[in-house]
Amino acid sequence: MFSPLIDELMSALRCLPGVGPKSAQRMALQLLERDREGAGRLATALSNAVEGVGRCRLCRTLTEQDICGTCSNSKRDDSLLCVVETPADVLAIESAGTYQGKYFVLMGHLSPIDGIGPAEIGIDVLAQRLREEGIGELILATNPTVEGEATAHYIAELARGQGVKVSRIAHGVPLGGELEYIDGGTLAHAFSSRRAL
Amino acid sequence: MFSPLIDELMSALRCLPGVGPKSAQRMALQLLERDREGAGRLATALSNAVEGVGRCRLCRTLTEQDICGTCSNSKRDDSLLCVVETPADVLAIESAGTYQGKYFVLMGHLSPIDGIGPAEIGIDVLAQRLREEGIGELILATNPTVEGEATAHYIAELARGQGVKVSRIAHGVPLGGELEYIDGGTLAHAFSSRRAL
Fold first, then answer.
1. Average pLDDT rounded to a whole number, residues B84-92
2. Domains and CATH numbers, chain B
3. Complex ipTM, two decimals?
């Protein structure tokens, strides 16, 4: 219905998560009617990022440098390594502001049904680091989902085999949460993981 | 927190309507982790559209041609001209499938408080067309908002001054709507615009 270039823009916008045909139409028209400068800037940012952003050689997170800012930061504790699933998880932990060690970003989790095995989430890189660096403790912070737990279990076995101390972040009732609204699985876990006072 | 190219991409994504910081982060990471091809295609589509898409010389809608597909379609009725606010309105009317005339797209509405006067919405182009073409009826389909009504009123005066027949699309209870859920303004309008049977 619209002209070819506009139709192509609408269809290209559909690659964004959560954007359906109606949102794509609204976005395309809004950009062309009112914010061509922003659209130009977005096009440049996309090209630059697609071209420039790769993986950190040490922690596998997304970065345009060979080694990312966190890995090259000499003020951080080299003896602690925290394993997370995505760069967004790193951001969440950094926002909490207490962890001072380094990270290892799997960029996913084990999921044999989708063809994602140890090689796809960089377990070889992690194993090499565990062998060669003097890592004192490996903290597993994968998501508490079936796949995340399986991944944590797999990595724990690997680390134990190399004599590295492994821990898992605590799961239970979140601070400020009301028991009334917490799901059964979380509550059961909170009871089975109770600590002596 | 992320590397500069990723931060720049997140900030550029904020120009899209309805995209806040959290959505922008999700979009940027998803594109870089899983859909670089789509991101590249989006960058190209944006550049092409920003560069190529202009306005139709006759109806002012967004198009990359000098005269858009609807205006150059000889099968459509030249004697009917429908005035709408945006290209999305044209799409909505076309989807209804009954109107066979041509369009004039204001790309906005009169809004003196935002500095949008008759010149900004192409009233001069419309006035010239009313003078020079043999338009039998001008149908005003601007939105039933305060600004839309004011714009319709302004254009109606202009057309009457040039001896062109003017009409306004009907407003009232939508088909399939239940009276119980219709707002008071619409119901009042539906009563005052009642037709004899």
1. 91
2. 4-52 (1.10.8.420), 68-168 (3.40.1360.10)
3. 0.81
